[in-house]
Amino acid sequence: MKNLLFLLIVLLSGFSINAQEEPTDSEKRMEKFATAKRNELSLDVYALLAVPALNLRYERILGRFSGLGIDLFISFDNNDDLINYSEIENFSLTPYFRQYFFSKEDFGAKGFYAEGFIKFFTFDGEVFNPVTNDFVLDSFFETAIGFGIGWKWINRNGFLVDLGFGFGRNIGIDGNPEEFDNDFQPRGGLHFGWRF
After folding, report:
1. What is the 3-state secondary structure (H, E, C) of 95-144?
2. What is the pLDDT of residues 55-102, one digit of tens each?
3. What letter would DSSP give residue 178?
4. CB contact at 8 A, 60 and 38
5. pTM of this structure
6. CA–CA separation, 118 vs 44, rounded Å?
7. Distance (Å, rounded) from C-alpha 15 to C-alpha 17?
8. Residue ranges in the chain assigned as alpha helix (H)
9. What is the DSSP letter of 156?
10. Which CA distances in Å does 167 have to 97, 149, 184?
């Protein structure tokens, strides 16, 4: 009887060892995600055609529901026509964090998202010069903190389309003239790119 009980314990322990050696479906998916494409590079075609400006974006996929990225915006618009109290953004650097929703795939990071961002930007604007009794163009620096929403589509080859928009609240850096106390800074675009 003791030999039968000993043999049964040895057989059961052998089955449990074999079951532990073979990874579960969840472990297989997580291993696949760890080696999957997790970097994205894209270009805002709207800014390129409408402004014109170069707006590049890099995003690092942290997991199936989140990503961390940065946008670089460089304007090519050399608008010398002065319009009273206008702001023409020249350069911006915008780090952001995204949270994706409804992404059921284990290495998703696509679909609907919400993001928080901090935008550091320079802009040209005109200020009144009392000496010349005229408006002159000057450069200023500002920072905005905001939120945005959007949707990202990705095919199996890694091609992506990202459509998003949002608003940031300008902090109001000292040194900017009072006429540039705009409360909000828009953010958005239509990005085409690649996940690699």
Report:
1. EEEEEECCCCCCCCCCEEEEEEEEEEEEEEEEEEECCCCEEEEEEEEEEE
2. 999 999 998 899 999 999 999 876 555 444 446 689 999 999 999 998
3. G
4. yes
5. 0.76
6. 18
7. 5
8. 2-21, 25-35, 45-50
9. T
10. 15, 10, 6
